Amino acid sequence: MFLQTIRPILKPRNPSCFLSPLCSLLQFQFQPLRPISRTNLPPRPKHPPESEIEESFLKGSGPGGQKINKTNSAVQLKHIPTGIVVKSQETRSRSQNRKIARKILAQKLDELYNGEQSRTAIVGDYKKKKAASKAKKSARKYRKLAEEKSAAAAGLTPGGKETISVIEQVEEEEDDLDEEEDVEEGQEDYILQNTHPNKDTS
Amino acid sequence: MPRLPPTLFWQARRLISPLAPLILPVCRDLETTSNELRWIRDHVKSHPSPIPSKLRIWQLVDKRSNGTPLQYVLGTQPFGSLEILCRKGVLIPRHCTESYTLYLSTLISSSSPSPIKVLDLCTGTGCIPLLLTFLLPSATATAIDTSPISISLAKQNFLHNFSSLPPSSNMTFTQNDIFSPLSLPSSPDILTANPPYISSSLFQSTQTTRSVRHFEPKLALVPGDHLKQKAIEYNCRLEDVFYARILEIAREIAAKRVLLEVAGWEQAVRVVEMIEGKEYGTVGIWKDEVYGATHIVEETQIGRRKIKVIGEGEARAVYLSRI
C-alpha cells in the first residue's frame, strides 16, 4: 500500500537513491525498480573454487594409449559440499566440456542457493512474460483480422461502410486500453518483487 | 567383442535416428552413437558445401559405419584448445596425450624464465609441440618424424592453428629417422616423444581395437622389424627400442626435462630401469589422467630410484627432470 501511494512520485529510472534513507529506516533492502529487460538480467553465476570440485572423465579414462582410440569426451563434476553431480558431453573437445560442465554446475548452485532470485528463474520469468505478450499481440491481430473480414462480409449489405469505420474506432480504443494494461501489469510485478524480501524479514 | 542385442538396434532407431543403427556396431552403445551422430551433423552444418547436407551426413555416416575412426571421417580432433587436423596415415591424438601435455605445461610455466626450447620426436600430427607453443608463449619448437606424410600434416596443422598461436611462435619441422645421425638443438628445456611402443603380439591381440589395427598407421604404433638389430645393440626388447634411443639422444643433447609416453606400468618400469647415470634427479610416472582429474600422488621405489606416481588410470608416461 505504502509503495502504491508513493508510486506517482517515483521517477522511473533510479528511484533507489531517493528512497534509500526510508529503506534503511524500515530495514528494507530496496532493489532498483527497473523492469527486467535483456540488458538488465542478473550476471551469470561463477563456478565454485576448484578445491570444492571433484572432476572425473567418464569412460574416457581407463585403459587407453595408442592401442585404443575413444571418442568419448564426457566430463563429470561433483560439488563436494552439496553433492550435486553434473555431466557434459556436448562437444568433442574435453577442455570445452570442462568449461560447459562448470557453467552448468554454477547454474545449479545458483538455483539451489537463490531459488526464485537465481538467474535461471529470472530469465525464465522474463521469457515467459515475453512469450505471453507475443501471444496476446498475435491473438489481438488475428481477432482484428477476423472481425474485419466479417465486417467486410456484412459491408456488402447497404450502409456497410459506416459500420466498418465505427468498428475500427472501437478497436483502436481497445488497443490503447490493452497497452495500458500491459504497463500496469508490469509495474505490479516490480512491486511484488520489491516487497518480497520485506515479507521475509517481517 | 560381445555381440550387441538386436533390441539395441531397434532402440537406436527409435530413440536416436534411422541412421543410428548404422554406426551402433562401431560405437557400441547408445550414448556414444547419439553423440557421434550429433557431432557429424554439427560438422556438416559448420562446413558449408554445395552438396545437400542430408547427402553429406549420409556419406559421413556410411564412412563411419565401416569402422573408420570418427577423427578421420571429420578430419579433425580437438586437442586442448587447438583443433588438430587428422588424416589417414598419421596417428590420431589421444585424450591421455592431451592430459599429460597440459599437465607438463603447468610444471614449466610455474618455474622457468624465457625462452623455452621444445623438441618433439615422433611428432605425428605435431599436436604436442603445437599445444606447448600455444600454452607457453615465447617457446620455440622443433618437431621430427620419420614419415613425410606426418611432417606435411604437422606443417598444415601449424598453419591451421596459426591464428590462435602466440605471434612470436616459431616451429621447425624436419623429416628424419631418429636412429640416423641427427642435428638437434642443444639442451632443450623439454624433450617429448610419443614413439611407437606396442609389441607386435599386443598389436595382433584383441586388446588393440579393430579401428586402430585397421585404420591407423602401424608405423606409428609398432617398432618395425628392421629395428631388431638395434634392439640387440641396446640390449632391450623390440617394443622398447625407441626409448633406448631417445634416452641416448636426451643424454647427448642434455635435455632438461624428458617426457616419454608408454603403454602401461610394465613398460614404464622398464623405461625407468633404462635410465643411466644420475643426471635426472626427479623421475616420475604419470597415469592416464594427470590434468584436471582429482590428483593422486604415490611414491614407489624402482631399483634405487624413488618414483613419484601421479594421476589416475594406467601408467601413461615417464617424466625425467634434471631440475
Question: In words, what does this structure look like?
Answer:
The complex is a heterodimer of chains A (202) and B (323). With 202 residues, chain A is mostly helical. Chain A contains 5 helices and 3 strands; from the N terminus they run ααβββααα. In chain A, strands 1-2-3 form a 3-stranded antiparallel β-sheet, with helices on one face. The relative contact order of chain A is 0.10. In chain B, the strands form 2 sheets. A 9-stranded mixed β-sheet of chain B has the order 5-4-3-6-7-11-8-10-9, with helices on both faces. Chain B has a two-stranded antiparallel ribbon with strand order 1-2. Chain B is built from 13 helices and 11 strands. Chains A and B meet through strand 1 and helix 3 of A and helix 3, helix 6 and strand 11 of B. Chain A: GO terms for molecular function: translation release factor activity.
Helix count of chain A? 5
Question: If strands are numbered along the chain, what order do they take across the biggest sheet of chain B?
Answer: 5-4-3-6-7-11-8-10-9
Using DSSP, what is the number of strands of chain A? 3
Determine the CATH topology of the largest domain in chain B: Rossmann fold
Protein name (chain A): RF-1 domain-containing protein
Main location (chain A): mitochondrion
GO cellular component, one term (chain A): mitochondrion
Family (chain A): Belongs to the prokaryotic/mitochondrial release factor family.
What is this entry, summarized?
By secondary structure, chain A is mainly alpha-helical. Chain A has helices at residues 2-6, 16-26, 94-114, 119-155, 160-201; strands at 53-56, 75-79, 84-88. In chain A, helix 4 runs antiparallel to helix 5.
